[in-house]
Amino acid sequence: MLKNYLKITFRNLFRHKVFSFINIFGLAIGITAVLMITMYVSNELSYESVHENGDRIYRVNVKLGNGDQAMKMAGAMAALGPAAAAEIPEVKKAVRFVSPGEMKISFMDKEFIETKFRYTDPSVFQVFTFPLVEGDKTNPFPNVNSVVITESTAKKLFGSANAIGKILRAGDTKDLVVSAVAKDIQLNTRLQWNYLVPIESYRSVQPGFPSWNQFGDCFTYLLLNDGVSSSQLDAKLNRLFEKNAGGLSSILKLHTMKLTDIYLRSDISSDIGHKGNITYIYLFSVVAFLILLIASFNFINLSTVRSVQRSKEVGLKKVLGASRFGLIKQFLSESFLVTFISVVLSLILFQFLNPVLCEFLKYKIAISNFENAYFYLSVIGITLLVGFASGIFPALILSRFNPIETLKGISIPNSGRLPVRKTLVIAQLVISIFLISCTIAVFQQLNYLKNADLGLDKSNVVLLDFPASPNGRAAKYEILKDKLLLEPSIKGVSGVYTLPGINSQDNQSISLLKSSELSDSKMIRAIGVDFDFVSMMGAKIISGRNFSREYETDKNSAVLLNESAVKMLALKNAVGTSVYIPGGKNNSVREVRVVGVVKNFNIESLRNEIVPYFLYINPERFITIAIKIDNENREKTLTHIKSVWAEIMPDKKIDYTFFDESYAGLYTSEEKLGELFTIFSSLAVFTACLGLFGLSLFMTIVKTKEIGIRKVLGANIPGIMIMLNRDYIKWFVVAFLIACPIAWYTIDKWLHEFAYRMNINWWIFFLSGGIVLSLALLTVTFQVIRLATINPVESLRYE
Known about the structure:
With about 800 residues, this protein is α+β, with helices and mostly antiparallel strands.
């Protein structure tokens, strides 16, 4: 029986080649898009799945301050981890990571600047799944000068020679002995490293380490026993912190986050590494479903409209004894076969297109589809779901025909008039309008973000990373600045702690009363700047004055508040007011005077409201040097900058970017979202148009005689075209009215992720509708014109 079903199916496929092609190719395009989205989603969801204990590993985060102005940081105090492992029964082991930033690594004549150099605890290989090729995971650091490296690092340094026991140099003085070699770290973990050294050796770099009072740089992970809740753990961690840190616990709270949640759900802006967005996972899952619906609707539509042609086949089979259930099985088997062929074709397309898509988006897939269980489940699920869903309705329609009426030639209900056909076409148009509207909105918001007025001039500004120096940053900064300004094309130089696109935060307490307790203080963002920062970057002073070298006290005792800070402190006349901030002797506060109020400018992404902050002169806090240059001599200026850097900082690799590029990088995820929406909405619209082409092709078959008669009776081509397109225009109007509110609601919900957002313009929906209507009419009109221009004599001879 199955053999007979297959034989009939193949005969039908070859007899109606155009319909078969549209069905198979349309499904294949839709399934390919779904597989690509599935790969993206499963890759995002796979982060930290490499760690066997991932569901029991929690990171300790710090919340400094209360309310909306609280600062959230991923780095806890260094003394916490060992204390938690020793004093909290629920904690099995603790691991800390400290990154010094760049580290010069040398071996014989080879020298590298390494950014994945980490200090950590020996328990790291017992908590995290970092398989060792050589070495003992229970004792990875036999002594304080040990280092564990990855396979690719070993090959880069030592070639094919055995790495164990080799001595390499970190920095200019510290020798490290390779004690173990680990497999290369998989891409789907944010805990990336090439070198691990024992955290005890960090004491020589950071005096006073580990401390209960310093935080922000030490990332602490806890491996918990089974059945421990995060709320239970948080309470015990805060009690432990209060016992050891005293008054600091009044403004600082600890909270934990599961390792597997950090990548997609962390809202900590000072986090390490890039992050995903769980909203986009949901969004693209919906897009995949919608594309699959469009492809399936094509199959259903084309199968139902062809029911008229197959009515005699069904009638004859019923007369010869075929049951309705047997006919349903036959048509379902046809549906599954077409789906299977489409899935095979889509897998071929996927292998070619997915690498191209990843290259275009600069997106790295951490796990191949052959290792991805989600991928296999998706392929099987799509085959079964699409095969059944696409086949069951046509099967029910075809199997219900009355054999007597069909064999007598009595007209059966035209499937083209069935409400389901209209419904499915309208649904396809709704989805197409919805996806195009969302795509346009994403790019509109992205354009708004990139071109919004930050309150700073970001054009022609070069940003240099300014690393720490053993003798402090201030001396090096002044030498660099003086030499840089020797070049006439450099218009200004200023050190700064943070700017939009720089992942750094510094919150400090501020009070109007000197004797105020920490709990009564406000938390405010502190930004160390140079005297020239405000004028060079185009910030505006709205009251008072700017910093000035003419006032000796400005260097240590003056601040500028932004408008948000003035509002937070409820100051009517801010200029001249004394405020108290940290920095006095013996960890006390110091008095500074507000010399001016600066107009609000953004120091973060426009996803967030402008926070209260103060500017103060502090060269030791400069982690970036901003250089205003003449755009006409850009290459010459950059050459000068590089030569000055090489002269003053010979041991540090220069790392620079342009401010506008750094700022644009804040919205990489939105840019990828727009590009992905463009690609997949185009595929969805293309698939819908393919279905409309099939329907219009069928129309030329069933309406050939009617058109011939109308032309004989005097109908002209424009009138015929209007008559034939009337239904599609009606369906479009209904689809447009349905799609607009759905798209508006979705766009509005997405825009609420941004503190600063565009207004939703009405023309977005009209443009989307115009694109869909134009493509639909072009697709249909191609067949309509061909039909309307046929000689009526030929039309009446038809059949």
